[in-house]
Design goal:
binds potassium ion; UDP-N-acetylmuramoyl-L-alanine:D-glutamate ligase; elongated; EC 4.2.1.136; binds ligand NPW; NADP; NAD(P)HX epimerase activity; potassium; ATP binding; Rossmann fold; binds adenosine-5'-diphosphate
Length: 485
């Protein structure tokens, strides 16, 4: 599991650790990790040109001490001092090792840029001259190594106000910061390398968690000798309408290919015909009127994709929610819930899977605002609505009251195409039906869906049906041969 913390959590832990160590120890540990990472990136240190961007706080101190270590190994290191003050001992060590002060033009002659402008102490948008230096670093040919977090990224949320440094590598001290796992911050951090400074014993429960492939493999249900289709989990899909047939086909496909024992589909004539011809495996009920009578028992429902928002859709949603099994609500189902919150009043679990626009309808917050601070809005909605919220987008986040938010970055921007969300709802529904709770089902589905997207894309456009088709390959990649039984 990749775990990450807010700036306040890190500070509190650092405080406890620092009290037990001679002054400056932590910064020395941070700086030697940073210098080692820079050396690896440079390949050959001797004779290389390194430019440090140095702010007024300890982030700049880290950069100066690391610069001193690189200078001692024969690098030509220059420091652009951007703050109203500079870490004194760091600057002294840097100059003593042969480092030199320079103007902003040193950015252009660098082989490597070290961004020590601001770290966890940042507040608000970067001010001048930091702002200009960040842009100059982004425009330069040389790669940038960010110290702790790329300057301009809020360490606790991933939020960026104005400009931020675009790093090739972020060397983060003590523990990962939340903002390195959540876009837009995550997209600016590049590779993330963690330097152990001994903070571990002092860290609290994490703020956010990112599942690894091994975590997902351990959570995914697998059939065993005593399995049959009913015990493996039956998922019911209420999606599609005479106008939107594709959503039904994609949601059913996602559910079938993510390992449901059986998929029941219920809908009107047009989507029924499409689902029947595409997925002969599905057990289908053609509805004359909006009713679940005679559809059969399921262990979880997926409701909403392409369903429409009229009386028929509203009645189907109400009947699904009146059941006593977990329900995943997506797309049009969310529009209906936004109109009529009372529909959510049920005892059994609910997983909602909005994109930012749908969450905006549910909560009233602006779409851009949600995208800028995904964690805050997903957490807020989970608390307000009393459900598990899977907020889709470049970083998918899964929030449930009183648990660390799960974040997923396995996807690819190629997934931003119509219908891929319908596939995700089917995948997550299949995991719910197989017995995972909303939190695990949502976060494992996001991981698998992202990985399936990468497999389906391989760097080129994908289509939603191709993502569904790649779900078994994604599961195989995670679970390896042991999945064959
Ligand atoms: N503590 C430890 O043991 C260890 C800490 N470590 C390191 O210390 C870092 C934290 O250091 P920190 O607390 O000094 O804060 P930091 O991020 O350098 O910035 C603060 C200064 O930036 C400025 N500033 C703020 N916002 C700004 C803006 N928008 N635009 C422009 N300027 C802005 C503001 O300066 P002012 O404006 O007051 O001059 C403020 O004083 C941490 O990330 C890690 O790298 C490691 O060595 C491990 C051990
Ligand atoms: N920039 C992006 N990077 C990675 N994944 C993305 C990006 N944009 C969208 N996605 C993913 O693509 C899917 C789109 O879902 P959604 O918006 O519901 O589309 P639709 O309603 O057309 O099915 C979601 O799983 C989302 O996380
Ligand atoms: K930085």
């Amino acid at each position: 599991m990749r775990i990450a913390y807010t700036a306040d959590q890190i500070r509190a832990a650092e405080h406890q650790l620092m009290a037990r160590l001679p002054e400056g120890t932590l910064m020395q540990r941070a700086a030697s990790g940073l210098a080692a990472a820079c050396a690896t990136m440079l390949g050959k240190v001797y004779g290389s040109r390194v430019t440090l961007l140095v702010g007024s706080g300890d982030n700049g101190g880290d950069a100066l001490y690391a610069g001193a270590l690189l200078a001692r190994r024969g690098a030509r290191v220059e420091a652009v001092l951007a703050g109203s003050r500079t870490h004194e001992a760091g600057l002294e060590a840097f100059l003593l090792a042969g480092g030199r002060e320079a103007g902003a033009e040193a950015i252009e002659r660098a082989d490597l840029i070290v961004d020590g402008l601001v770290g966890i102490g940042v507040s608000g948008a970067l001010r001048e001259p930091y702002w200009g230096l960040a842009r100059a670093a982004n425009a330069a040919a040389a790669p940038t190594v960010a110290v702790d977090v790329p300057s301009g990224v809020d360490a606790s949320s991933g939020r960026v106000e104005g400009a931020a440094v675009e790093a090739a590598l972020t060397v983060t001290m003590g523990a990962r910061k939340t903002g390195l796992l959540v876009d837009p911050g995550a997209a600016l951090a590049g590779e993330v390398e963690l330097v152990d400074i001994g903070l571990g014993p002092y860290l609290p429960d994490p703020d956010v968690v990112g599942l690894t492939g091994a975590d997902v493999a351990a959570l995914l249900p697998r059939p065993a000798a005593e399995s049959d289709k009913y015990r493996r989990g039956v998922v019911g899909v209420v999606a599609g309408s005479d106008q939107y047939t594709g959503a039904a086909v994609l949601a059913v496909g996602g559910a079938l290919l993510a390992g449901a024992g059986m998929v029941r589909y219920a809908g009107p004539g047009e989507p029924v015909a499409q689902v029947r011809s595409r997925w002969p495996e599905a057990v289908i009920t053609e509805l004359e009127r909006p009713s679940l009578d005679g559809v059969g028992r399921v262990q979880a429902w997926v409701v909403g994709p392409g369903l429409g928002t009229g009386d028929w859709a509203r009645e189907m949603l109400a009947q699904v929610l009146a059941s006593d099994v977990p329900v995943l609500i997506d797309a049009d189902g969310l529009t209906l819930v936004a109109r009529e919150r009372d529909l959510l009043g049920r005892d059994a679990p609910v997983l909602v899977t909005p994109h930012a626009g749908e969450l905006s309808r549910l909560t009233g917050a602006g779409r851009d605002e949600i995208e800028a601070d995904r964690l805050k809005h997903a957490r807020g909605a989970a608390a307000d609505l009393g459900v598990t919220v899977l907020l889709k987008g470049s970083t998918t986040v899964v929030a449930e009251p009183d648990r660390p938010v799960r974040v997923n970055g396995t996807g690819t921007a190629w997934l931003a195409t119509g219908g891929t969300g319908d596939v995700l709802s089917g995948v997550a529904g299949a995991l719910l039906a197989q017995g995972l709770g909303c939190y695990d089902a949502g976060s494992c589905a996001a991981y698998l869906h992202g990985l399936a997207g990468r497999i389906a894309s391989s760097g080129a456009p994908l289509h939603a049906a191709g993502v569904a088709a790649a779900v078994p390959a994604a599961i195989r990649e995670l679970t390896g041969r042991s999945a064959s039984r």
